[in-house]
Amino acid sequence: MHRTVFLIAAVCIAMPMIATCASDKKIFCYFASWSVYRPGKGNFDISEDIDPFLCTHLVYAFVGLKNNEVNVLDPWGDLPPNYLGGGRNGFGKFNDLRKKNPNLKTLVAIGGWNEGSKQYSSMANNAKYREHFAADAAKFVIKHGFNGMSLDWEYPAQNGGAPEDVVNYIELLKILRIHFNKNKLILSAAVAPTEYSASLSYNISQMVKYLNYVHLMTYDFHTSSEQKTNLHAPLYPGSEEPSNHKQANVQASVKYWLSQGCPKEKLIMGIPTYGRSFTLCDPAKNSIGADACGPGDAGPYTRQPGMLGYNEICKLLHQPGQSWDAKYEYEREFQYASSQSQWISYESFLTVKPKGAFINKFNLGGAMVYSIDTDDFKGTCYGKYSILTDLNKTIRN
Ligand SMILES: *[C@@H]1O[C@H](CO)[C@@H](O)[C@H](O)[C@H]1NC(C)=O
Ligand SMILES: *[C@@H]1O[C@H](CO)[C@@H](O)[C@H](O)[C@H]1NC(C)=O
Predict the structure, then answer these.
(1) Is the shortest distance between the CB of 206 and ligand 1 below 6 Å?
(2) CA-CA distances (angstroms) from residue 244 to 239, 256, 338?
(3) Nearest to 266 by CA among 218, 214, 189
(4) Phi and psi angles of residue 345, each rounded to the nearest 5 degrees, phi first
(5) Rounded Cα–Cα distance for residues 291 and 154 (Å)
(6) CATH architecture entry for 24-274+351-395
């Protein structure tokens, strides 16, 4: 036994490019480009705030789809001044981070929840449109200096899509692969994690052939759209949970994707740097499963009811005069806290360690973090980027 362990370690050191060692693990960091408009200490600056050595891949979110071509959603933020409507050159600053770390790769993500599914569905349903989009996508990636693209269509055959999306999605990935291979570009996709959702959208054994990486969005399992408080990204199910909740955790999702033929080295496990919040109906009833009467209050930076960045949460918990009751749920490996009517479940530097250990144990490709701009990037609570730093230590050492 000891001998085997020693041999594997030796192979890792001798052939770091070939062997799958802990240090080969990838960390994909999404950057929410609208974070550059957040106020105060929530304001995120690409050049100043991104540590180019904490992630192996950076993902710029999002661009959109229009007339079967890639559509820049925020020309002022994304493009340089010499473009029509351009200004702040987000793409340029982002890709310039590779000058500081030549091993860093950058991707641009197309889609996201707000884009819906409809346009993607009609583009994928027509061979000519697919071909046009695939050629345009490769051209776009090269023109703006990225290394690849993440297709974040949420989701085929759901949210405004059509049943034939499942088959068309594979055809779309095939043609994208052809165009991306010509220029050695990376192609990944963000996907629905649970069996009940993924089985509506994907032919997993087929799709993984054409993708370099699969970003498993293992978070938002429970949000304030449900009327009970619950943990939004627990690693494990709870023994007391009802059977219809047993898929709503990281472990069940990872196991499902592996069982359907996703190669473990392509599977990238999602980790949220944010929490999901609820407003309790009765502040005295604040356990998991307590009645919730709506989303929690919006935060000062993210300004969106029902979610808070970790940088907002850790500040709240630290604020003098506020009595937050913070609990660690050991069985499911996640945290939650409440104060008066507010209830938040959240990832932290504590919960990320068992998740990192899980990635190592299953020898997955790595982690995907959504999104770097809501980790504590200023270091106001426990040092800069406390979630990402501990993730990096756990899976890349
Ligand atoms: C996936 O596609 C293959 C090849 O077309 C087909 O044989 C298989 O039945 C499909 N699987 C699912 C789950 O749809
Ligand atoms: C992340 O881990 C890698 C591998 O151990 C290390 O080289 C790098 O310096 C770490 N990044 C930071 C910012 O600590």
Answers:
(1) yes
(2) 12, 15, 26
(3) 214
(4) -110, 140
(5) 29
(6) Alpha-Beta Barrel (3.20)
CA of 204 to the centre of ligand 1 (A): 9
Of all atoms in ligand 1, which is nearest to the CA of residue 205? 1
Q: Classify 336 as helix, strand or coil.
A: strand
| pLDDT-derived band at 9, boundaries 50, 70, 90 | very low
What pLDDT digit, counting tens, does each position of 106-154 carry? 999 999 999 999 999 999 999 999 999 999 999 999 999 999 999 999 9
Domain residue ranges of the chain, discontinuous segments joined by +:
24-274+351-395
Ramachandran quadrant class, 391 (left: phi over 0; alpha: psi -120 to 50; beta: rest): alpha
pLDDT in tens, 30-69: 999 999 999 999 999 999 999 999 999 999 999 999 999 9
* Smallest CA separation from ligand 1 atom 13, residue: 203
The chain-wide mean pLDDT, for the chain, equals: 94
Report which ligand 2 atom has the smallest distance to the Cα of 389.
14
CA-nearest residue, atom 9 of ligand 1: 203
What is the DSSP-derived secondary structure letter of residue 15?
Answer: -
Phi, psi of 350 (to 5 degrees): -80, -50
Residue type, 31: F
- Which residue is it, tokens 């627990």? 234
Using CA positions, which residue lies closest to atom 8 of ligand 2? 53
- Among 345, 155, 356, 332, smallest CA distance to 246 is for 332
Strand spans (E) along 235-339: 267-272, 274-280, 292-295, 307-309, 325-329, 334-339
DSSP assigned state of 291: B
Q: How far is the CA of 280 from the centre of ligand 1 (A)?
A: 45
Q: What is the 3-state secondary structure (H, E, C) of 61-92?
A: EEEEEECCEEECCCHHHHCCCCCCCCCCCHHH
Q: Is the CB of 16 under 6 A from ligand 2?
A: no
85-101 pLDDT, tens digit each: 999 999 999 999 999 99
Q: In which region does residue 72 sit, left (phi positive, over 0), alpha (psi from -120 to 50) or beta (all else)?
A: beta
- Position 95: which residue type? N
The C-alpha atoms of residue 209 and residue 176 are separated, in whole angstroms, by: 12
